[in-house]
Amino acid sequence: MVAQIRKIIDHVSGWLTLYDDGFVDRTWTGPPQFKFMSDPVPPHHHFIDGVATHDLLIDAPKSDLRVRVYLPEAPETGKLPIILHFHGGGFCISQADWFMYYNIYTRLARESGAIVVSTYLRLAPEHRLPAAIDDGYSTLLWLRDLANNKTHQPWLSSKGDFNRVFLIGDSSGGNIVHQVAKKAVCETLHPLRLAGAIPIHPGFVRSVRSKSELVKPQSPMLTLDMLDNFLKMGLPEGSTKDHPITCPMGEGLQGLKLPPYLLCVAEDDLLVATEMEFYEGMKSDGKKIELLVSNGVAHSFYLNKIAIDVDANTSEQTRKLIEGISHFIGSH
User: Fold this and answer.
1) Residue from 94, 118, 171, 219 carrying the catalytic annotation
2) What share of the chain in percent tops pLDDT 70?
3) Which residue has the higher pLDDT, 11 or 4?
4) What is the 3 state secondary structure string of the chain?
5) Residue 88 needs a FRET pair 20 to 30 A away by CA distance; which of 119, 180, 198, 287 works?
6) Is 269 a catalytic residue?
7) Could you report the per-residue pLDDT of 58-83, keeping only the tens digit for each?
8) Choice among 97, 134, 161, 269 that is catalytic
């Protein structure tokens, strides 16, 4: 019997290889010094540097949807706002327990005094969009069930303020923030209140390259190859980058009562031109939207622990980003 030889049909350097039999290999093949950022961090129910973590199966037995919860060490009095997080990765890679997310979201939980709930999103190409959006929205409805006492989770039920729930997402997770926020306005969430939405460097693009894609430098966190191939594998079959999930600019939102937005952009991001187009469109539609610009840094810079440790500006811009997000949460 002759062994079948797999053929590579798609590849994203360092991150993902897709074979003709449908197998997806996400083994990191890039520079070994970066591998630790994609290593999973086990949950710890005890406090480390002021934060404890817990992984939960939230919708059993109907599905295997899971979340990671970050609980900051805080006084017993008073409820804590809840941040619902959607990770990035071009809809195709990464997990909620990766070190790069653990490193920044333990910090955000600690400095903002908020509970972070991060969804383990289904990944493309095995699960093309809108699967990840459905997972994010299902997590929001689970939080509503907790608010209604239809289900119970000790950390959230006793300590979470369901009147102050915020959506936050990195890169493609920022796209999910916008889509979940739009779905949420059509649903009765009471007694949960969606208090704000925070897309960070969202993957807003067009089929035609924007000016920033043409002139801004590529970075370890985003290259044009990653952008093109991840979206080709992540969007619904037959779609282009002009799909509403990736191209919401100018879609017309006058009839939707969206929560206040804090749009976070980076000056040297490949996607900054289309992100700013989204910002201007939201303002034209009369939506409440604030802008936080990080200067001299590129896409998802704050997830790159190596850059934070060795580059003074990356470290300072990360501090300002966390401070700006914390202020937004504190004022809503």
Assistant:
1) 171
2) 98
3) 11
4) CCCCCCCEEEEECCCEEEECCCCEECCCCCCHHHHHHHCECCCCCCCECCEEEEEEECCCCCCCCEEEEEEECCCCCCCEEEEEEECCCCCCCCCCCEHHHHHHHHHHHHHHCCEEEEECCCCCCCCCCCHHHHHHHHHHHHHHHHHCCCCCCHHHHHHEEEEEEEEEEECHHHHHHHHHHHHHCCCCCCCCCEEEEEEECCCCCCCCCCHHHHHCCCECCECHHHHHHHHHHHCCCCCCCCCCCCCCCCCCCCCCCCCCEEEEEECCCCCHHHHHHHHHHHHHCCCCEEEEEECCCCCCHHHCHHHHHHCHHHHHHHHHHHHHHHHHHHCC
5) 287
6) yes
7) 975 567 899 999 999 987 778 999 99
8) 269
- Which pTM value belongs to this model? 0.97
| Catalytic residue (choose from 85, 87, 201, 299) | 299
- 38 as an active site residue: the answer is no
Give me the domains of the chain, ranges plus CATH numbers. 40-330 (3.40.50.1820)
Position 207 scores a pLDDT of: 96
pLDDT (0 to 100) of residue 3: 56
The C-alpha atoms of residue 305 and residue 240 are separated, in whole angstroms, by 33
